Amino acid sequence: MTPISYDENSIKVLEGLEAVRKRPAMYIGDVSSRGLHHLVNEVVDNSIDEALAGYCTEISVTINKDGSVTVADNGRGIPVGKHPTEKISTLEVVMCRLHAGGKFDKRSYKVSGGLHGVGVSVVNALSEWLVAEVHREGKKYRQKYAAGKPVTPVEEIGKARKSGTFITFMPDKSIFKTTEFRFDILADRLRELAYLNRSIKITLEDEIENEKEVFHFRGGLKDFVKYIDGNRTPIIKDAIYIEGERDGTPVELALTYNTSFMENIFSYVNNINTHEGGTHLVGFKTALTRSLNSYAIRNKLIKEGKISIQGDDFREGLTAVLSVKVAEPQFEGQTKTKLGNSETKSIVETIVGEQLSLYLEKNPSIAKRIIEKAVRAAEAREAARKARDLIRRKNALDNLSLPGKLADCSITDPEHCELYIVEGDSAGGSAKQGRDRSFQAILPIRGKILNVEKAKKNKIFENNEIRAIISAIGAGIDEDENADMSGLRYGKIILMTDADVDGSHIRTLLLTFLFRYLRHIIETGHVYIAQPPLYKIKKGKQERYAYDEKERDAIIKELQARGNGKEAEEEPEEIGAEAGGKRRDGIIVSRFKGLGEMNPDQLWNTTMNPETRTLLQVTLENAAEADRLFSILMGDSVEPRRNFIEKHAKYVRNLDV
């Protein structure tokens, strides 16, 4: 490899670091757990870019005992000399100036990730303290910062045997709602990066919980599809692997087929998960359909005139991971994760088409199994089409066509409308009485809906509960060409189920259906989970609600500390199957059992009133990991499900026993 210049002249400065602490959500999305973990991703992205440039092979992420995080790599090390225009150390420029880095200089990095990445400077700005240590050109350098500002100069602290960058930071507790890093959340992204970059070894260690995992997958994308499909039954033994480069754009693809009825394609550009697809995905789908169709016709595996096989049929049971590296990616779409570079389509289409056609000719038995599955899919598609047509023929904005059980709202502007999907008639009745009829609609569902993970499409679209949900939401389904959100009737789709085992199961069934067939409404941020309280704490005329045991205990402690005199003795109020008990100082604690056993006023005040409720937005940070998770929780294999539950039991917050 020809050495690429990476020195003080490579670092370009676009603007300063004002406003990050004042408006952190603009830079990292939010200040919840999601934004907290995004800080780690920002630092890791810098190390990955060093790897893409060919200068880094090892990355480590450590959750330290004090709650801080250290990200270390064996790359070239951030330049430390005086910056040519800023006249201060280049390390300080990178750490303290927004949009300062080598990514803007294509001499230093041919391609780089971090779609929304604004660099380590934002991590610095949102940290209580941060220490940057650089090993470069045989020397060690260090600088310390507080709230994004340097508190020491860049100091030479010794000799270095190897090069690399070490960033240790403590998130600012005054900014983030939580500063507790989760091993499993970090592992999901680091595992994904290791699959996408097979030459990199990534180590994750948690010194608090004493956990450690090493991610290094020499098989790359082949290992990735095997991991995703680990709980499904394959119809081909080894994943098909394709790799090539054209016009300076490397293309990598791994695909396999299983016996399920789902299509799972995950596409990446410069390690960014392109949830909305784009030109690279179009090129792949075109090449797949054309190659399989040509092979089938040429080898007389399809009887002419009997059935027409479409692209969807060739993708039933397909799991594929497509990764391309683009020097100047242009992103579009609602979440800016859709590739728009027109030239990438033909590059992917050519490379995949040529190599897949060659593979099919060399492996006729595998080709035959794939074609046979596509024929069965085409037959099932025709049956499913008839069921879907019943939904499509209806006008989603015409109340006469909506489900009879739907209690609609009076206004029609989707931006201000909410749909509560509620478990059971009892809870539905309370919700209908307690809601604000102007903007809140209620759709009760009967018991556990169909598990779409294990059902054929025609059975899915014949199911009354699923048809009611699709019709009420009005946004079509993912495989429809018209699934473009234009028919969406509600800005918020809120799942409201009991806080017990059955309620959790029903919520998982609903999420499985939405993930498989209405993923576009999840990706665009329209799906939420209601958080009904678990406890009511009463002292005299005061009533407070708690959503978990920790909050319950904090409220009790607060009421006890007030010490406003002795309250009148009262008997515990029965709520559901579990009544609460009296503690000291006349405080009565009651536990809610189910939504249907809350009166309408309580349901409104705690769970439906926008002023007082708590909603959890359903996001899709890692589609591949979500796909694997749903296949574990809702698929046929029992053992992976048992292992998952045993491993993650410690994260359960609300357990009904």
What is the CATH topology of the largest domain?
Answer: Heat Shock Protein 90
Oligomer: single chain
How many helices? The count is 19
Query: What is the molecular shape?
Result: flat
Number of domains: 4
Mean pLDDT: 84
Defining traits:
disordered C terminus; single chain; nine-stranded mixed sheet; 35% helix; 27 strands; flat; alpha+beta; Ribosomal Protein S5, domain 2; 657 residues; five-stranded mixed sheet; Heat Shock Protein 90; Rossmann fold
Overview of this structure, please?
By secondary structure, the chain is an alpha+beta fold. The protein has 4 domains: 8-215, Heat Shock Protein 90 (2-Layer Sandwich); 221-388, 2-Layer Sandwich (Ribosomal Protein S5, domain 2), CATH 3.30.230.10; 394-531 and 616-651, 3-Layer(aba) Sandwich (Rossmann fold); 535-593, no CATH class. Strand 5 (127-136) and strand 6 form a beta hairpin. The termini are far apart. The relative contact order is 0.08. The model is unreliable at 393-400, 565-579 and 650-657 (pLDDT under 50).
Structure at a glance:
The chain has 657 residues and is an alpha+beta fold.
Describe the SSE topology:
Layout: E1 12-13, H1 25-28, H2 33-52, E2 58-63, E3 69-73, H3 90-96, E4 100-101, H4 120-125, E5 127-136, E6 139-146, E7 149-150, E8 155-159, E9 164-171, H5 183-196, E10 201-206, E11 211-215, H6 221-228, E12 240-246, E13 249-257, E14 264-269, E15 272-273, H7 279-298, H8 311-314, E16 318-324, E17 331-332, E18 338-339, H9 342-362, H10 364-392, E19 418-423, H11 425-434, E20 440-445, H12 457-462, H13 464-473, E21 492-496, H14 501-517, H15 519-523, E22 527-530, E23 535-539, E24 542-546, H16 549-562, E25 581-582, E26 587-591, H17 600-608, E27 615-617, H18 623-634, H19 638-648
Parallel strand pairs: 2-10, 14-16, 19-20, 19-21, 21-22
Antiparallel strand pairs: 1-4, 2-3, 3-9, 5-6, 5-9, 6-7, 6-8, 10-11, 12-13, 13-16, 14-15, 17-18, 22-27, 23-24, 23-26, 25-26
